[in-house]
Amino acid sequence: MAGGILLLAHLALVAWLTLRPLDVPWVTAANLEPLAGIKADLAAGPLHAARRIGEGLLLLAPLGILLPMAGGRLAVSPWASLARTVAAGALLSLGIELLQTAVPGRVVDVDSLLLNTAGVALAHLLVVPAGRARLRRGGSGHRPAGRGRDRGPLLREDAPQGPTPTIPRVGIAPWSDACSARSR
C-alpha cells in the first residue's frame, strides 16, 4: 500500500518536472543520436556534465525501488525483477520523451531515455536484492529455524496450521453385497 502511494507521488513529481511548458527564447534541436548529448555535456566541462548526467540518472531512479515495492513480492527471481523494473522504467521514460514533443520549450533527447533507464537499473541493483533478502529473514539477520537455504522463506500460506484433520473410516459393503443389493 505504502509502495503504491509513494510510486504515485513520485510519478506526479516527475510529470510536474518534465511536462511543464518552459518559457525560453529558443529551443535546441531534438537529440536522436545516442550519447551525442552526453559527449556535448562532457565537452562543456566536468561540473556541467556531472550536473546534467546526475539529473538524468536521478529523475526516474526511485522507480527502481518503488516498482518492486509496490508489487510487494519477496520470493521472485532477481533477474526477472530487474528486467521487469528496467523495462517499465524505459517505457515510462519513452512516454515522457514522446509527451514532451507536445510541450512548448521541451524537446526529445535520446540520452535522457538512456540515463533515466540506467538510473532505474542502478537503483534497483543497489537496493532491492539486499532489501528483499533482509525482509525474507524477517529483518533480524538470521534465517528462521527449520528452513533450508534452498526452500526460501516461510510464507503465510506455508505456515503450520495445526494437525491434519482425519476422517473416520466408514464401513463399505463388500463388492458382492453391493452388486446383489442393486439387482434386487
Please describe what this structure looks like.
With 184 residues, the chain is mostly helical. Helices cover 58% and strands 0% of the residues. The chain has helices at 2-18, 36-43, 46-59, 63-71, 78-99, 110-136, 175-183.
What is the topology?
Layout: H1 2-18, H2 36-43, H3 46-59, H4 63-71, H5 78-99, H6 110-136, H7 175-183
Helix pairs in contact: 1-4, 2-3, 3-6, 4-5, 4-6, 5-6
Q: What best-fitting shape do the alpha-carbon axes yield? A: elongated
Largest sheet: none
**Mean of pLDDT:** 85
Oligomer state of the chains in this structure: single chain
- Residue share in helices? 55-70%
In the predicted model, the low-confidence regions spanning at least 5 consecutive residues are none
| Total strands | 0
Using only CA atoms, what is the Rg?
Answer: 28 Å
Sequence of secondary-structure elements? HHHHHHH
Beta content comes to: under 5%
Structural class, by secondary structure, is mainly alpha
Count of helical regions: 7
Q: How far apart are the termini?
A: 66 Å
In short:
It contains seven helices and no strands.
